[in-house]
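Annex B. Sample input.
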Amino acid sequence: MQPQDQLKMWFGEFRKLKRQGDRAVAQVRPDDLFRTIDDEANSIAILMKHIAGNMRSRWVDFLTADGEKPDRNRDAEFIVDDETPESVKQQWESSWKLLLDGLQSLQPEDLDRSVLVRGEQQPVPEAIFRQMSHYAAHVGQIVLLAKHFAGDRWQTLSVPRGQSEEYNAAMRKKWSES
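Annex B, continued. Sample output.
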């Protein structure tokens, strides 16, 4: 795979992750963002804040500054104080913009570079993969919580149960026509 194709693929996959999180969050009531399933669990809002804090830290000056910024307060990402559903969603949106804009600004030759994260040198592709894996894990948690809180109102984000054959047939038809 050519470097420019790799960058496009990552961009597309990050956008899919964001869409999945957005679609899950859209199905819960505003107060559900702050609910937890037990005393030790994170809420959807906390997961969104943590992802936002991580993205801001990693993607501001991605190629030139350590990915763990000195002004990041990671522990505060796991505390809900005066946040509102709107403020949490604003943090989420602005951090995804940082990531997607940062990724789009990369040039194919940047994939041969390394970045620092907590003082550790990481090849750019490894740093991107690590971030994608991290965000995917947390978006999965968001989806699980949203499905739990939405209950009977939940609209599946993927192929509905019992409809795999129909879906596969439709996809085969779609791709054979293109």
